[in-house]
Amino acid sequence: MRETPLSTCERAAVLAAISRGVRLDNRGFLEVRDINLSFGKEYGSCTVTLGETRVLAQVTCEVVEPRPSRPNEGKLSISVRLSPMAAPHFESGRGNELMDELQMILDRNIKESRCLDLEALCIMAEESVWQLRVDVTVLNHAGNLGDACNLAAVAALRHFHRPDVSVEEDGRVTIHTFEESEPIATYMKKVPVCLTYAFFIIDENIHMLMDPSEKEERVMSGKLVVGLNPHGEITSLIFPGRVLLSKKDIMNCIKSAFKKAKFSAEMIQNLVDEDIVKRKSSVKVDGFAKNLISDTVYASHMVKKTIDKGQNFKFQVPRESDEENGSLNDEMDEDINDEESGDDNSDAKPNKSDILWRIQSIRQASTKDDDATHSMETDGESEEEEKKPKLTAQDLI
């Protein structure tokens, strides 16, 4: 499925906002979206959210033979997968330019920078070493996938613990479970951080901003991906796009990136250390469950939302016009006055506003009139019968 292009109005709105120094999400040009890290129940499982962008990274390990050129070093492989749930135009099993770009960013920033101590992964030189595999899956694409994938991969590697092994005299390798022996943490020399700058050419002027969103990426003229660590070393520098930048602009981006890199590296280290301390103190690990909302919680949330929304409304009973109300009240007053003056056998006086009682009273009045006329007819017949002479036995004789 092809990506749906932006309309002319959307493109013009993004460029017009940037030309006036405003972004659509009300951020500053050098402001990064909120970053959240959460760890799964197993070591090496991490999800990173950068705004609405969400990425999952999982680290696994296995025992393999080392390379002949490096017999005492372990192996590290990184793979990126664009899930179809991340965006409609991502197709599983098919690569594209974005996947190749993300793969290049992670390889240069993590693998080629040698931030991981590969010699510590050696079990027996020239015979067996550990191979770490990092699988990065994009769950939601909302812009700046390079930074999010790098954060997820680095945090997962920093959080990963491999099982302990023992080597027998005959060269056999025994892998112990976590219950049998305490797992061994992965040692990282430095924490690499990736920062992305987007450039826009508007009226022959170049505008620069950090952490571009998905719409900004589709409008930008080019970008600069800076990979570095908090020690001041540049691990990678990728410059895709068609924008010509001067040396001064590139140096300004690198200086700004150093300030952000130190904060991101400290955040990753602190969050990973906190989670490891909780696991070692026998605290129950919730994993990703804390990021989910159960059906009962969601239902109660919707009920509360409906109640709060309903408090703003005023329910009014529809009323008749004033003329109809006036005539109706007059008729009801007359009926009630007549009953109070004449009828002793009537029921207790009901409420005036009871329309059903009014209808019932009218029916009772009509039935009373029918009974009165019927009684008058019967009385007249009886009087005529009394006026006629009655026949006796003597008259017949």
TrEMBL record:
Protein name per its UniProtKB record: Exosome complex component RRP45
A Pfam family it matches: RNase_PH
Annotated SUPFAM superfamilies: Ribonuclease PH domain 2-like, Ribosomal protein S5 domain 2-like
InterPro entries: ExoRNase_PH_dom1, ExoRNase_PH_dom2, ExoRNase_PH_dom2_sf, Exosome_comp_Rrp42_subfam, PNPase/RNase_PH_dom_sf, Ribosomal_Su5_D2-typ_SF, Rrp45
GO biological process: exonucleolytic trimming to generate mature 3'-end of 5.8S rRNA from tricistronic rRNA transcript (SSU-rRNA, 5.8S rRNA, LSU-rRNA); nuclear mRNA surveillance; nuclear polyadenylation-dependent rRNA catabolic process; rRNA catabolic process; TRAMP-dependent tRNA surveillance pathway; U1 snRNA 3'-end processing; U4 snRNA 3'-end processing; U5 snRNA 3'-end processing
Region feature Disordered, mapped onto this chain: 314-397
Compositional bias (Basic and acidic residues): 366-377
Domain of life where this protein originates: Eukaryota
Organism: Halocaridina rubra
Places the protein is found: Cytoplasm; Nucleus
GO cellular component, one term: nuclear exosome (RNase complex)
Keyword list, A-Z: Cytoplasm, Nucleus, RNA-binding
GO MF annotation terms: mRNA 3'-UTR AU-rich region binding
Exoribonuclease phosphorolytic domain ranges (all copies): 31-163, 191-259
Stretches with biased composition (Acidic residues): 321-345
Record bears the keyword Aminoacyl-tRNA synthetase: no
UniProt family annotation: Belongs to the RNase PH family.
